[in-house]
Design brief:
Blueprint (H helix, E strand, L loop, with lengths): L3 H8 L2 H5 L9 H7 L14 E2 L1 H11 L1 H4 L26 H4 L3 H11 L10 H14 L9 E2 L25 H4 L1
Antiparallel strand pairs: 1-2
Length: about 180
């Protein structure tokens, strides 16, 4: 059994303090390149914009092979359609599940297309987000999505989530 003094010596030894010398230390610039999260209230949204019309050809080229024509499902999940969720096994799509339009943007920007994540420009992500929202009849075809307009899109399932940071939610100043 270790005594407190032996544990102290082990934890404060120079060999442990230096670490195992694996990998390369990260710089602030390294971390900043990955610090691209978008909060539900739109904090962190980049400059740029896009419309559903601009998103349609991008979707056809980079998304349709997985999510199907009109985003109604293919090899991977449908992004459009599905009735309201009534059970845990229900099909989940953008309109019936996602609580915030800004997190749709965040997910597309961070993870899509799956074979080349983070390869889309910010304008392409805005356009794809607009396309998917318009396909779900949540915005009009000609609505421009940008850092000011995207957080204003109210998703149908918003009130069925318990927010972890309620002060960071769109309209928090009105809802609290």
């Amino acid at each position: 059994m270790f005594t407190r003094s032996l544990i102290f010596v082990l934890l404060t030894s120079p060999a442990l303090a230096a670490g195992p010398n694996l990998g390369t230390p990260l710089t602030h610039a390294d971390l900043a390149a990955w610090d691209i999260h978008i909060l539900p209230d739109g904090t962190g949204l980049p400059k740029g914009s896009g419309t559903a019309a601009q998103g349609a050809p991008i979707y056809a080229q980079k998304c349709m092979h997985c999510h199907g024509e009109g985003a109604k499902g293919g090899v991977n999940a449908a992004l459009v359609g599905a009735p309201p969720i009534k059970s845990i096994d229900a099909t989940k799509t953008i309109a019936n599940f996602w609580p915030y339009s800004t997190t749709v943007f965040d997910f597309i920007r961070r993870a899509m297309p799956w074979q080349q994540p983070r390869s889309l420009t910010d304008d392409e992500v805005y356009a794809l987000t607009a396309y998917i929202l318009a396909q779900n009849k949540l915005i009009a075809e000609k609505d421009v999505m940008n850092a000011q307009t995207l957080p204003k899109v109210r998703m149908p399932n918003r009130d069925n989530f318990i927010p972890r940071f309620p002060d960071k939610m769109p309209g928090a100043e009105r809802d609290l």
